[in-house]
Amino acid sequence: MNLKSNKSPRLVQGWGLKRLSRCAAPLLLIVFCGCDSVTYDMHQMHQPVVINGNPFLDSGNAAAPTLTKVDRYAAEVNEAQVTASNGNATTTQINRKNNAQVAAFAKIGGQSNRAILNVTLDADFMAVNALMVLGSEISIKANGDVGEFPVAVPTNIPPAAVINTSAAITNAVPVVLKKDS
Amino acid sequence: MKKIIFILPLAWLCGCAGSRCQISARSVHQPVSCTPCVFDAAGQIREAKPNEIVQHIKLSRTSWSMFWRGVPLSSTNWDISEELNNQLKATPGNAVVNVKVKASGSDFLDWYLAALLPIIPSYVNVSLDADIVRIPVPNHG
Q1: DSSP of B3-51, one letter per residue?
Q2: Which of B18, B13, B12 shows the shortest CA–CA distance to B67?
Q3: What's the rounded Cα separation, in Å, for the pair A71 and A146?
Q4: Which residues pair with A142 in a beta bridge?
Q5: Which residues of chain B have pLDDT under 70?
Q6: d(Cα B28, Cα B65) in Å, to the nearest integer?
Q7: Which of A120, A123, A142 minimizes the C-alpha distance to A75?
Q8: Which B residues 19-48 touch A at CB under 8 Å?
């Protein structure tokens, strides 16, 4: 017995619309929620990260220290979204990555004579349509040099500031422990 | 042969779209920092304070490509040196700080169609926010 023949055309149409709406829902999600944006934001770093080669303010008369390249800096801010369907179920996976400030801190953090120079920012958008798989990725890749200048060692330390440890030990008052009888 | 006839239209329905844009500012003489900090001439870190901001600048650019990103319709390199130099000359500022770059891609309809029909271009939109600041320089001389 053919079950399909018992169904009215209205029922079949209703089932089709229901299925169509179920399949179209993830696509609508991509239409309205896809295509996000990424931001390269370094406002929490408290050391210079410059996109040109000069991190020094121009003072007019004093010459700025000379920077030497000691390392490379590379970081990425990325957001990728992939929606795949196998006909029955649809899955959407979103991946986000932002190591811009962490990578900068790993290179120059805590070293006040270091800066990141010549940073180039490469913004890239790519989307793929492979029938059952739709994917889009937006990223900003940052690349630069880590520069360092020699730290000036202060030479005007007063002699009193130097502690003579041997004298301190010699002049120490001996402590005698008495035992009460 | 039948397989090829079946696969070719399917392969034609697959594709990719997108674009890219590289930002640089190599020929600006004043510091252009992504953080609020720069060095003074003595090598000390100076953080720009909010009251030292003389102007906020906003630049944006859209970079287009077609044929699965293979043919760029606009230059993929965006050198912002000229814009920044002009802004620095027009203001009393001595540094650019808080540079923030935002990238956003094509909307879904555009890239979906661009992947199907590679003659349709797709884009990446890049916008840059920054502050021009006047940081007082201590006289070390």
Answers
A1: HHHHHHHHHHH-EEEEEEEEEE-TT-SS-BBSSSEEE-TTS-EEEPPGG
A2: B18
A3: 5
A4: A75, A121
A5: 6-12, 139-141
A6: 28
A7: A142
A8: 19-47
Give the tokens for residue B80.
Answer: 């912002």
Dmax (CA) of chain A: 116
How far from chain centre, in Å, is Cα A157? 41
Q: What is the DSSP letter of B136?
A: P
Q: What is the CA radius of gyration of chain A?
A: 33
Nearest residue, CB atoms, A53 vs list B14, B26, B46: B26
Comparing CA positions, the residue from B42, B30, B34 lying closest to residue A150 is B42
Higher pLDDT, A31 or B43: B43
The 3-state DSSP class for residue A87 equals: coil
**Mean pLDDT of all residues in A109-128:** 91
Q: By the CB < 8 Å criterion, does B107 face chain A?
A: yes
ipTM score assigned to the predicted complex: 0.86
Going by DSSP bridges, is the β-strand pair B77-79/B15-24 parallel, antiparallel, or unpaired? parallel
Contact B39 A55 (CB under 8 A): yes
Q: Given an 8 Å threshold on Cβ–Cβ distance, is B108 in contact with A121?
A: no
Q: Is the pTM of this model over 0.90?
A: no
Question: In one letter, which amino acid is B30?
Answer: Q
Residues A120-170 pLDDT 10s: 999 999 888 887 788 889 999 999 999 998 876 655 555 544 444 454 444
Residues of B within 8 A of A113 (CB-CB) are 43
* Chain A residues closer than 8 Å to B31 by CB: 48, 50, 52, 54-57
